[in-house]
Amino acid sequence: MRKNCARMLALVLVWLVAFSARAAQTTVSGDSIKSYIRVLASDDFMGRGTGTEGCRLAEEYVAAKFRQWGLKPAGEKGTYFQPYTVQFFRLNAEPVLEAAGRRFVYEEDFEVLRFSGSGDVRAEVVWVGQGLVDTSSKRDDYRGVDVRGKVVLVAREMPREGGSPMMDQPSDSVRAAAAKAHGAVGMLIFTPPSESRPSRLRGRLSPFDYDPSFVAATVDPRVATYILKQAGKTEQEINQMFRSGRGQSFATGVEVHLRVDATFDPKRATRNVLAMIPGSDPKLKKEYVVLGGHLDHLGTDFRGTTYNGADDNASGIATVMEVARVMMANRIRPKRTVIFAGWSGEEMGLLGSSHYAAHPIWPLEQTVVYLNLDMVGRGNGKVRISGKYYGPKVWELMEQALGDSLKKDAEPQRGGPGGSDHTPFLVRGVPAFFLLTSGDHPDYHQPTDDWDKIQPEVCQVAGEMTYRSAVALAQAPGALLEADREAEYVFRHAALAFLQPTWLTTGLESMSQHHIDVALLVPRVKPQAGLSEKLEVLVRAADSLREADRESEEFDLATNPAELRMATYRGTLELLLGVRGQDFDWDEAILRNLARLDYRVLVLSDSDGVWTDGRELTERGKQAVRIANETGLLLLLENPSPAVALSLLSATSKPAAVAGLEGESLREEVLNAVAKNRGLLLVPYCPREKATDVAQRLNALKPRLGSDHLGLYPHFRDPKLVSLARSIASELLKLGWKREEVEAVLGSNLAQILREVSVEREMTIQFRF
Ligand SMILES: [Zn+2]
User: Fold this and answer.
1) Yes or no: is domain 96-260 CATH 3.90.79.10?
2) How far apart are CA 45 and CA 49, in angstroms?
3) What is the pLDDT of residues 8-31, one digit of tens each?
4) Domain at 37-90+265-476, CATH homologous superfamily
5) Which among 24, 262, 542, 616 counts the fewest CB atoms within 10 Å?
6) Dihedral angle over CA of 160, 163, 167, 168, nearest 10
7) Confidence band of 159 (pLDDT split at 50, 70, 90)
């Protein structure tokens, strides 16, 4: 449904005239901001869904205001716009799913997968387990069933404890492709529930494999259970099927009715809006201060409900507009160029700001800061400003600029990627701050997020903060562009793991000051002590860390691999408890209970004649490995001889971490064994070394093991090594490593491997509608 252009322009003109009288005011006005919100969030703009007429109208409106106030165009070819395309998908009517006489509820029991085709299918359901075909492992979940013209029911893999259900498994698209290849006309897919992760309905196919006639939906496990029960399966059998997911495909005899009516446009046009006040300093005008917010929202859904998005994010773009207006009204002649941006595509996944960051009209290397406003229209009057950890110098200037009057309303936060349009800037090393008003946003993503609920006094505070910060940063003398910003971002964002076992009693404060994010701690146990005394020490060590966790914001006892991933967002020092075998005399009963005491790592070092005879693992060593595998302890092998490393790697059934091998010891057969084990090879580094040399060693190992199986191993317990780790990260980027690869080596591989060794706790499924 396209409205005609003349009507659209007429609307814009009406809105422009209605509020132009305020243009003379020279301070940020909450009422002005609310007046723009009233326009953008009116029903005429139909919720501003990216790629719809409503969003186009918003783009025109924002650009027209910029023009009216005298800002220069900063888009492509002398315009106010940066056009790009999105993969547009929307449902035109309420989808239908019925099975064996039962009608399911949309968004409660099932959801259409994004980029599903359309159709009205009535067909038999065929259970195909995980729906995978892999010729190399001779796996074929479609063996023995004929799915032509039918709908397949597919289970994703069981999520692992602490893991994401979507990680490490073939995508829904892979399963859809297998279904289509076998002639199926539709797919119902679900995630089996586990204790750690509830099942979620959302999912998507790849838009690149779009098939207009293949319909696909995610269903709640209850729906899958219902269908399988209709097919005569017991609850116990169904639990078993969910868990194993393979080997028993069969036609259920149950008919489903699945109806999807959707529109897909692979290249729907949309635009970012860009305007500027050019800099006046001959040198600094080539540097940029960028302010922005998204102008799109969720649009109108298939039920005809319009999501006006007054707070999200008419408030943010309106505040950016007001700052632009006031800078013009005050005839500010900034030294640096100030860019004002309105992004589209945010609600579809930060598409507009990502497009700009990938195709910057004004170079990102010259961009000193990006200030993002998203949802600043309601709340308690305080403003959360996130990003100081990633841009400490810029934050210092901003804080000064706020002055005492505004500082009391600012809530500075560590910040980080995710959640809004600051992300594409931040990950490329541009200091980026995200302003969001504090307090509840009760109508978030609801059709009730309307303009009349906007609190002008709240917008005004956010607007003044933005105005003062932007002016101060645009005018600041001296250099604001720091060297090597992307490496600094990667290093700060990574969870830097310091896997040299450290005595529990020493140096926690100094570690957290030095940006160490994960530390491996071992209790100090007197070798001559008796067994019960040693056990006592181990128990007390865990207790004291639990207490530190409770009492301090700075430390967190990592009992779950997911917590290691969180380290980087929380800014806590994640403490990982480890123990050496000799510290409990390799006592089997203690070993079996370590995981329950929150120990996560079994350190194997100093050949003591019990677990290894110096050449290979002894029987007791092998038994310890078995128990560690069973109970979910990570094996960390320190500075072994190649022979002992080989012996351990052949004994363990789970991935292990091997630390300290270098030079001659990194023999072909050892590398092969690590590759086969899919564990971690921890490359040592010490203060005397040059970052380039360590980076070269990692780079040489990458083709053999992949960046997923490499880590760093500090040779000493010296926090100064942290700055060396930072330089290593920088060198790896220069060698062409991706950001994620560098972060993996610095720490996230450790979280991954801990997840793999951790023991799954499965959940018995009981479903009743
Ligand atoms: Zn938003």
Assistant:
1) no
2) 9
3) 667 666 666 655 545 468 999 999
4) Zn peptidases (3.40.630.10)
5) 24
6) -50
7) low
